[in-house]
Amino acid sequence: MDSLAAIVGPLLEWYGRNARSLPWREEPAPYRVWVSEIMLQQTRVEAVKPYFARFLTELPDVPALASAPEQQLMKLWEGLGYYSRARNLQKAARVMVEQYGGTLPADYDALLKLPGIGPYTAGAVASIAYGIPVPAVDGNVLRVVIRLTAGWEDIADPAVKRAVERRMAAILPKDRPGDFNQAMMELGATVCAPGGEPKCLVCPLNALCEGYRQGIARELPVKAKKKARRIEERTVFLLVCDGELAIRKRADSGLLAGLWELPSVEGKLNPEGAAETLQEWGAQPVSIREMPAAKHIFSHVEWHMTGYWVDLTERPEGFTWAGREMLQQEYALPSAFRAYLEAFTK
Ligand code: SF4
């Protein structure tokens, strides 16, 4: 028997007393669990709550999501970032409509084949919504297990995660897999917290924790350093004509694929270079004003942006024009452009 099996009882008991009340927990229908899990990737619980409520009101089930216009979907996701998550949600919903009668399949392997669903999300949906005894190992669970076992393995190594998944599968209580998985995540989020701050003194597992016993919990887990982010200089233009702003769609592949953007080009252009670009676009500026620099951080890239406010009396071709209200209500511009967009909308 795996020594970790001893954590099951105290963990579930602790969870019963301490589980946070969350909208997707109160009513763990498969669609709700799935949407919440996708939103929670890379995003904090408190930030997700209003997005989740709005999303479920406008798109209450799989068929509604499958047939939602792209504009509506992007608007609902605006500000959450990582927009491919929203696109994959819709792609997966369409597969569900075509192949599974408009619901999530109650089958771990079938879930795993859907766009945007990896082992963690498949495990979470299968166990929480359907009671299927499969593990769901996210970063929180990984950290807890590594500390419990005083492991010095590199958690960036996929083999380490797979090994933890196997151990979790072996100790998972067959009658309460969803509660067990959520209890592990909850412990990792609220007690065995990241950043070297585990609250071992109040932890229900401290008597069973090897990391705590050895006094090394704070040093764990170890993770190989990520490569530094690539810095990309960009120049962003606010083309303003009659109180409307020019926007355009980005290419269908690459960073922020298919989303609306403020017209921008690679590189840091000085005023002369900016004037040349405007000429190439057929824009005849009445005035050009340089704006403060801005920065946006993506997972692998940092945009260091230079901005120009350009007043026009005629509209060059190739852009869509939108006033303040339309920008707020209809077009979802990624938060990368927020600093400049706010200069126009505020
Ligand atoms: Fe984490 Fe400390 Fe609990 Fe061990 S005792 S599981 S290190 S919080």
Q: Can you describe what's shown?
A:
The chain has 346 residues and is of the alpha+beta class. The longest helix is centred in the N-terminal third of the chain and has 16 residues, at 84-99. Strands 3, 4, 5, 6, 7, 8 and 9 form a 7-stranded mixed β-sheet that branches. It is 44% helix and 16% strand. Strand 1 (192-193) and strand 2 form a beta hairpin. The chain is elongated and about 75 Å long. The chain is built from 16 helices and 9 strands. The model has no long low-confidence stretch (mean pLDDT 94). The structure holds iron/sulfur cluster (SF4). Iron/sulfur cluster is lined by residues 144, 147-148, 191-192, 198-200, 203, 205-206, 209, 211-212, 217.
What does the overall shape look like? elongated
- For the terminal residues, how far apart are their CA atoms? 62 Å
Q: Pick out the low-confidence regions.
A: none
Care to count the β-strands? 9
Range of strand content: 15-25%
Give the helix level as a range of percent. Answer: 40-55%
Oligomer status: single chain
**What Rg do the Cα atoms give?**
24 Å
Largest sheet: 7 strands, mixed
Mean pLDDT: 94
Order of helices and strands: HHHHHHHHHHHHEEHEEEEHEEEHH
* Ions and ligands: iron/sulfur cluster
Secondary structure class reads alpha+beta
By DSSP (H or I, 4+ residues per run), the number of helices equals 16
Keywords:
346 residues; alpha+beta; seven-stranded mixed sheet; two-stranded antiparallel sheet; 16 helices; 44% helix; binds iron/sulfur cluster
Can you summarize this structure?
With 346 residues, the chain is an alpha+beta fold. Helix content is 44%, strand content 16%.
